[in-house]
Amino acid sequence: MPRRPPTDSVAGVVAARHSDGPAVTAAIDETAFLRAVRVGDVVHVDARITWAGRSSMEVAVKVTADRWDRAVPPTDVATAHLVMVAIDDEGQPRTVPPLLPETDGDRRRYREAEIRREHRLALRRALLDGAEEV
Question: Can you give 33-73 as a three-state secondary structure string?
């Protein structure tokens, strides 16, 4: 069985905790590899819910690395945004709690997530329309 990327695994944990149950990956967005992780580096993966809808959630993931050979601050090495959908025991979408942004940073991330969502939906519509023409 293939291994899940760490961003997907951490996003799944964060989504499951927010929704109080299992969640599956619906989309992986905007993965950016910023710097290389070197052999021996200690990698940290952090994630947070940035947006929640009826059954889906966007999870922002940040990957940092502590350089093994230098006493320097952690280095940002990758970021990603994943869309997770909460599912019930039959694998059907289920309702998730709303996300209530509390800080200015939370509200900014929420607005940015809404923009990404609109772009994803527009792209999906365009791809589906194009598939019908083939």
Answer: ECCCCCCCCEEEEEEEEEEECCCEEEEEEEEEEECCCCCCC
Q: How far apart are CA 12 and CA 10, in angstroms?
A: 5
**H helix intervals, the chain:** 6-19, 104-133
Q: pLDDT by residue (tens digit) across 42-88?
A: 999 999 999 999 999 999 999 999 998 888 899 999 999 999 999 99
Residue 94, token pair as written in the block:
């289920």
3-state DSSP call for residue 127? helix
| Residue found by looking up tokens 């607005």 in the block | 111
Give the model confidence (pLDDT) of 7-51 as tens digits. 788 999 999 999 999 999 999 987 899 999 999 999 999 999 999
CA-based nearest residue to 65, from 36, 28, 89: 36
Cβ 11 vs Cβ 33: under 8 Å: no
